[in-house]
Amino acid sequence: MAQVTLNHVTKRYEDVVAVNDMNLEIRDGEFVCLVGPSGCGKSTTMEMVAGLTKPSEGNVHIGDVDVTTLPPKDRGVAMVFQNIALFPHMDVYDNISFGLRLRKFDKEEIDRRVDRASDIVQLEGMLDRMPDEMSGGQRQRVAIARAIVREPDVFLMDEPLANLDAKLRVHMRTELQRLHKELDTTIIYVTHDQAEAMTMSDRIAVLDAGELQQIDPPLVCYNEPENLFVAGFIGSPSMNFAEGELVANGFESEHFTVEFDPSQVPGASVGDRVTLGIRPEDVFTVDRVQNLSSATASIDATTDVLEPMGDEIFVYLVLGESAERSMEGETASSNQLLMSVNPDSDIQEDQDVEVVLDRSKVHLFDTASGQALAHGIEELPGPSAGTGPDAGTSAGTGAGEGTESPVTEAESDR
Ligand code: ADP
Fold this sequence. Notes:
By secondary structure, this protein is an alpha+beta fold. It contains ten helices and 21 strands.
């Protein structure tokens, strides 16, 4: 087990800055996913921890040792890659034990380690199989067992599930979590798949354009994204965004307003360009939110395409008077909002609806810098929207009238 630290690590390839001034501290025994779009620097970061690439600047520590210039074999790391490079002419036992035999471990020790590793990845009884007699998932388990027998301080995994089919990938996620629990070893895991990162990690490190955007537990990245990039990247489908302005009584965009006291938004003033973010599950039709005490004013919309997913329906909404507005040549996204509703909903395409946002789930970002300003906003205090039992009248929806019911009730009432 070991802690991994990157101090001001930069990697340049001629004119490309693959990783820029990265500071990262991965705790002993932690499972951290490096996640981000293709080309954001995930693999380069991993390679610098592995010793396959040297940083242009900065240093890497594993435990108390500065490993920046050490070769991979002296770093106590074991790697598992996307391409499972098993020796085709060797059986499972020989594939798993190859590295140990190369290092001249004695037979007894090799057997002990292979038994334990094959037990952990559930390959018992398959040690004499050849790779071409195994499924993709089984071959990937051999590759993981080969890493386990090295008894490393740190596991480095670069998209190890990327070549597996969807069902197997989900299954292997659970296996990797179990493996982590069993081995209690630091794992750094590279993926571009945010769902993989959300389900497995203790913390997610979100990268974009070679820079660390946020490192936090999955739900913190989901509920309190530090900037527009993280807000848009984490969560599927993505958060809705609407550009607008901070005004004296809240947020105003072309298609809707949300009332609140702008002084509750730290670091922003009236007149600033701000972007409002709301996740699809935090948008409700008015008739479904009787218990939502934190509803915004209603927004007129027309339903466009419906996507039934089985456990929920994604409803694409067009805000305002859709047909006319689209003919005015607006950009496709500016008047769209995605809402998710329960599968039993009788919502139809091309239906006029009124929707509200859950203001406790509204995010505000500075449009220019992308930095988050607020996660959840309070109602506008004052005669039209007090904090008493009639609070919520500003929403004009009847939502929240005389009720303190928590948001979760509304959600179950979709
Ligand atoms: P990711 O793993 O997130 O897809 P990489 O770390 O592989 O991203 O790459 C980050 C950036 O560095 C990309 O722009 C990529 O083209 C560039 N890059 C990576 N390796 C090399 C290399 N050996 N030579 C030149 N550019 C590279």
